Amino acid sequence: MSEAHRIPIATADAPNSDAHSAEAATRMTSTAWTGWATFAGVMLLLIGCFHAIAGFVALFRQSYYVIPDSNLVVTVSYTGWGWVHIIGGIAVFAVGLGLLAGQTWARIVAVGLAGLSALLNIAFLPAWPIWSAIVITLDVIVIYALTVHGKEAQAGSR
Predict the structure, then answer these.
(1) pLDDT tens digit sequence for 43-101
(2) How far is CA 65 from CA 36, 107, 108, in A?
(3) What is the pTM for the complete model shown?
(4) What is the C-alpha separation between 92 and 46, in angstroms, rounded?
(5) Burial level of 127, CB count in 10 A (0-12/13-18/19+)?
């Protein structure tokens, strides 16, 4: 089930009859997929931390990478990549917090940032192949969780 269901709930002051059933209050109930939205929020927190770690490594230990910065897909110094990763990591982390708080704007921004994160890591793939592949995989899972089951996060937070 990918949609939350509306279940009529009879109010205390309305008798349980057909005439008043139309006036019964409704509330959103969440399905098991609500956990995917929470998972996406937690993953965004981790991905933000992963980007920050990659950024600090790029700034302070450039010899750690597999290839020199001249062989990257986008020819930018590792110092430049480091700042891009740190700033991106902070943004992804902040959106993960917003997503865990059930903010609708965070779902929209999270999909965009996860897509940008995947593209950034594709460009960074030659320098750090395994790490970048892991982050790309997590980004795709976050996009899946938010696009297929995103509405249920809002229903679960009510």
Answers:
(1) 999 999 999 998 998 889 877 776 776 666 777 787 888 899 999 999 999 999 999 99
(2) 33, 33, 33
(3) 0.70
(4) 9
(5) buried
